[in-house]
């Protein structure tokens, strides 16, 4: 009886409604890159803290794994500030490998973060196998250029990709670059510098 109680007590600690600990730690590694405007105060370094309740975070209610991460306009008050005098704003390069722990991620919103591209050999292509559920990727209002397109084209699960307000050569050029690498049905809507690409 004592052994049975001990086993039951152990199982009580095996199941939890909180997020997975390794995903919580991975989020904390991301935090320093996204706190320019928003301090993300709910992202705390407390073991066992439920990151499913953190700002910008949405979990699968069954597995408690991350399915949506929203880090929008951390460099500007809002996206209307994009294109204004931002001489004090530092363009930085993303290490996409930092998203690898989030294996069930479906939606990733990184709009308005002054991202200039990926670190060398750390592009979005590294996520193609691990993040096989990623369907929505929003990279609008950044400083991306054509160099990122090859790695983006490797994300075969994408259904929606927003690249509006970046530094690409043009919407027709953008469509061509993506089509050369993957045989997708791509519809591009362009108007006054806006380039939104839908992948079906």
Description:
The chain has 200 residues and is of the alpha/beta class. It has one domain: Ribonuclease Inhibitor (Leucine-rich repeat, LRR (right-handed beta-alpha superhelix), Alpha-Beta Horseshoe). Helices cover 19% and strands 18% of the residues. The chain has four helices and nine strands; from the N terminus they run ααββββββαβαββ. The strands form two sheets. It has a seven-stranded mixed sheet, with helices on one face. Strands 3-5 form a two-stranded parallel sheet. The radius of gyration is 19 Å and the shape is globular. The termini are far apart. 29% of the residues are buried. Residues 3-15 and 183-195 have low confidence and may be disordered.
Keywords:
200 residues; alpha/beta; Leucine-rich repeat, LRR (right-handed beta-alpha superhelix); 7-stranded mixed sheet; two-stranded parallel ribbon; globular; Leucine-rich repeat-containing N-terminal plant-type domain-containing protein
Share of residues in strands: 15-25%
Assign the CATH architecture. Alpha-Beta Horseshoe
Q: What is the CATH H-level superfamily?
A: Ribonuclease Inhibitor
The N- and C-terminal alpha carbons lie at a distance of 58 Å
Number of domains: 1
Average pLDDT reading: 76
Low-pLDDT stretches are 3-15, 183-195
Helix-strand pattern = HHEEEEEEHEHEE
Alpha-carbon Rg, integer:
19 Å
* Annotated CATH topology: Leucine-rich repeat, LRR (right-handed beta-alpha superhelix)
Q: Would you state the CATH class?
A: Alpha Beta
Number of helices: 4
Return the structural class. alpha/beta
Overall morphology: globular
Q: What's the story with the biggest beta sheet?
A: 7 strands, mixed
Keywords: Leucine-rich repeat, Repeat, Signal
Protein name: Leucine-rich repeat-containing N-terminal plant-type domain-containing protein
């Amino acid at each position: 009886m004592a052994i049975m109680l001990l086993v039951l007590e152990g199982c009580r600690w095996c199941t939890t409604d909180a997020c997975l600990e390794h995903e919580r730690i991975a989020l904390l590694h991301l935090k320093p890159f996204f706190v320019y405007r928003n301090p993300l105060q709910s992202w705390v370094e407390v073991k066992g803290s439920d990151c499913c309740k953190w700002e910008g975070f949405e979990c699968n209610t069954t597995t408690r794994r991350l399915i949506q991460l929203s880090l929008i306009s951390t460099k500007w008050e809002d996206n209307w500030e994009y294109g204004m005098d931002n001489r004090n704003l530092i363009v930085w390069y993303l290490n996409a490998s930092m998203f690898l722990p989030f294996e069930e991620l479906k939606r990733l919103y990184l709009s308005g973060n002054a991202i200039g591209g990926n670190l060398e050999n750390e592009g979005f292509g590294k996520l193609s196998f691990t993040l096989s559920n990623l369907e929505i990727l929003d990279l609008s209002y950044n400083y991306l250029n054509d160099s990122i397109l090859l790695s983006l084209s490797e994300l075969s699960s994408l259904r929606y990709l927003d690249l509006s307000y970046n530094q690409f050569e043009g919407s027709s050029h953008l469509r061509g670059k993506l089509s050369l690498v993957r045989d997708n049905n791509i519809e591009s809507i362009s108007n006054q510098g806006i380039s939104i690409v839908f992948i079906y």
